[in-house]
UniProtKB/TrEMBL annotation:
Domain HTH tetR-type: 5-65
Classification lineage: Bacteria, Bacillati, Bacillota, Clostridia, Eubacteriales
Pfam families linked to this entry: TetR_N
Top-level taxon of the source organism: Bacteria
UniProt KW keywords: DNA-binding
This protein's name: TetR/AcrR family transcriptional regulator
Length: 205
């Protein structure tokens, strides 16, 4: 490790501690620099502002999960030509377990995103996931409906509300600092509950 990378790592570590304790808005750039033992000039050699430091701490895992989530949406469409749409709930639960493990592999970053990101572009992270889910799932349901594979309907408003409740509940694992084992059990119970509701409304053939 070079002196340069050691300096940057120290800034990141102290920045993470400050953001976790005070949130992005409450965190003090001056306090971060002072605790790190550097001048503000040294800090600016790595990051132009506090927002850039926050993004450096969360962007890779947060953006990575978003891309994995988009790929999971596409995987559901791939079930249709194989006439396996009935397996969509099982596939969703499989992906959910993968996602929760990814979140716990990067727990501090997601703690920052879910609990400390007000004032950054990540403050709407759960909402952004919900929007992707609702938009892609409605296209998926319409495709199934055209094929006669779906009997029930759900309004977009209700769809959005249910999905928002579901995603918020999933990320409660992070907000409440659940252990990985507890979180996996919790999200699987949550998936069972919501899947039963969707099946009752949509009646997938």
């Amino acid at each position: 490790m070079t002196e340069c990378s050691a300096t940057q790592n120290k800034i990141l570590e102290i920045g993470k501690k400050e953001f976790l304790a005070k949130g992005f808005r409450g965190a003090s750039l001056r306090g971060i620099v002072k605790e790190a033992g550097f001048t503000q000039g040294a800090f600016y050699g790595y990051y132009p502002d506090k927002a850039a430091l926050f993004e450096a701490l969360v962007s890779e895992p947060a953006d990575g999960l978003m891309e994995q989530f988009k790929a999971a949406q596409q995987a559901h469409f791939e079930l249709i030509p194989e006439d396996k749409a009935a397996q969509s709930r099982e596939l969703s639960t499989d992906y959910l377990n993968h996602f929760i493990n990814f979140i716990y592999d990067n727990f501090d970053a997601f703690k920052l995103v879910i609990c400390c990101s007000e004032g950054t572009k990540y403050s709407s992270y759960i909402h952004d996931l919900v929007e992707i889910e609702v938009t892609q799932t409605e296209l998926y349901y319409e495709r199934l409906r055209q094929l006669g594979k779906l009997e029930g309907t759900v309004s977009r408003e209700l769809h959005h509300m249910i999905t928002s409740a579901y995603f918020t509940a999933v990320f409660e694992t992070v907000a409440h600092d659940m252990t990985r084992e507890h979180a996996i059990q919790y999200v699987n119970e949550l998936a069972t509950f919501f899947n039963c509701g969707w099946e009752g409304m949509l009646r997938l053939k």
